[in-house]
Structures are given as structure tokens and as C-alpha cells.
Amino acid sequence: MYARSTTIIAQPARIDDGIALVNDELMSMMTDIEGCMGLSLLVDRSSCRCIATSSWESEDAMRGSNEQLKPIRQRLLETLGGDGLEIQEWEIAILHRDHESPAGACARVTWARPRAGQLDAEVDAFKTNVLPLLENQDGFCSASMLLSRETGMLCATVSFDSAARLEGNREFGARQRAMMTEQTGIEFVDVLECELAVHHLRVPELV
To answer: What InterPro entries would the database entry show (predicted)?
Structure first.
């Protein structure tokens, strides 16, 4: 399974229009494309960063969809009032759901760069050491890990059933990042807390 993320910095007053567009039109347009499994949209209203992520059955399906996606991306860019977009392609290494995310769910997205040659080892460490701890956190809904062998980057997303539960987990997340940096030398590049505005990736359990 593969994923493509498209990041747009929106105009604050246009964010809700973008969410509505994804729900009402773009979702069905995307899933009509061969090999597309689903779509999610993460929104951070403080920074106006919006991250749309599509899931794909194979790398070939993802790469082959580029031309079909150009007008869809442009429509979303214009609706959000953005000046440009950033596109990243990923392999889905882990997807675990404790239960479906309800309305009002929020997520923490963490981007990290492991030491050279340690990409798969860091995925295994997250699966073995961190995921069982997350399952015991109040309000935990799901966790995913994306990796890019081209850039050597990891992207982990952990969702909780409310903003309050996400905030309550903040200290735990910080402790885990500090511990991983000390033990493996992984570099954490960015952390974003956001609302899970659309969550229909439809990826099967991958652990």
C-alpha cells in the first residue's frame, strides 16, 4: 500500500470550504480513479496547514494517477486560497486502528529522519515498543507510519477521539521522542497537532 500527501497553506476563511469540497466532491472523484483506496484531510487552523492524503493499492497505481490528479489538486488549491502545494509520496509501513475515529477526532503528525540505514529498524521499533504503549493511552483511535526510501524520512500519525485527549497525550509523545532520539539518534524534524477533518483512507490493517 502507498500514499501521496499534498500540503497546502490555506487562507483561514477558506478552510471550511476546502473541507466541504473534499467531502462533497473530491472524495468520489478520487475513488473513481483506478487503484485509489480513499482520502483523508488533516487541518491545523493555527498555521492554516492542510494535508490531503490519498491511499493507493500499488506504487504503479499511485504514480499512474498523476495526470488525472492535476485538475483535482488545482481545484483544492483554489478553494483553499493557497499559493502553492507540496507533494510527497510514501510507502505505508504500518496502519493500526483500535476503533474508528469519531467526529471531532484530532491527530498528531510527526516527521522524522533516522540515521542512514536505520529506516526499517525505526519502523520495527515503533511497531514493537511504541504502538503497544499507544494502545493504552486514553482516547487512542489509530496510528500509522509512512516511509520514503527516496528521502529517508518517516511520517507517523496518531489519532485520538478529541482535542482534549490529544492534548492529554502531549507529554507522553514528547517523552517517547526524547527516548528514541537518545537510543537511536533519530532526528525529529516537525510535529503538527491538527483536526482529522476527513478520514476515509480505507487502508486495511497493516502491522
So the answer is: Dimeric_a/b-barrel
Buried (b) or exposed (e) across 82-92, using 16+ Cβ within 10 A?
beebeebbbbb
d(CA 61, CA 195): 28
pLDDT (tens digit per residue) in 70-96 = 999 999 999 999 999 999 999 999 999
For every residue of 44-101, DSSP letters joined together read ETTTTEEEEEEEESSHHHHHHTHHHHHHHHHHHHHHHT-S-EEEEEEEEEEEEESSPP
2-200 CATH pick, 3.40.50.620, 3.60.20.10, 3.30.70.100, 3.10.50.40: 3.30.70.100
> Would you list the domain boundaries of the chain?
2-200
Task: Kindly report, residue by residue over 116-146, the tens digit of the pLDDT.
Answer: 999 999 999 999 999 999 999 999 999 999 9
pTM above 0.70, yes or no: yes
Contact assessment for residue 101 and residue 196, using Cβ atoms and an 8 Å cutoff: yes
